[in-house]
Amino acid sequence: MNDHQQPPNTSITRSESTALGHPQQTWADPDWQRLWLTLDRMPWRTLALMPASDGAPDNFTLRLAITLSRTGMSHVGTPIMVADGTQVPLNQLNDFLADVRACRAGGERVIIALSGASQNPTTSSIAKDADSVLLCVLLDRMRMSEAKRTISMIGSAKFVGSIIIQSEGISIPPPPPK
Questions:
Q1: Kindly report the CA angle at 103 between 102 and 105, in degrees rounded to 5?
Q2: For the residues 81-96, what does the mean pLDDT come to?
Q3: Among 22, 49, 105, 149, which lies 20 to 30 A Cα-Cα from 167?
Q4: Mean pLDDT, to the nearest integer, of 47-52?
Q5: Which of 69, 76, 89, 78 is nearest to 11 (CA)?
Q6: Domain 3-16+27-108+115-162 fold
Q7: Could you read off the pLDDT of 91-113 as tens digits, one per residue?
Q8: If we measure between CA atoms, which residue out of 19, 9, 1 comes closest to residue 101?
């Protein structure tokens, strides 16, 4: 799918035109490169990045998706799409899934950023439609019990693994009151 063929307001963008907002080139980090090389060996065209639970900034998985996309593009030399699925409302779910499927059918790889399942009712549908899901854990901010619930909700067979991100250097709001 060419950029000029996409409808306006589409949530799928080429990550090469999206800035991370960080001066450093995170995608050049050896840890990101190892993660990419591991994921690249797996058979997926669509990979959903799903937070293990609440507790991360709103743009948590989107920033991870962009970084992973840039890391992958530096390796394979072709565009890897990023789809922002963090705020897809129910009335746009079918269109969003159709856009992602069209990219996949066209041979594109798409990394989908998702919000937590408790934050958006469409998250689980998007994750289940992806070829694979990567669980994203923000260290010291997410609970193991909620991560298990997330995996159970989507189905453990969909998950290709997890990534644990340290919270230092990430702007994080205080945890919600209990």
A1: 65
A2: 97
A3: 149
A4: 95
A5: 89
A6: Rossmann fold (3.40.50)
A7: 999 999 999 999 999 999 999 99
A8: 1
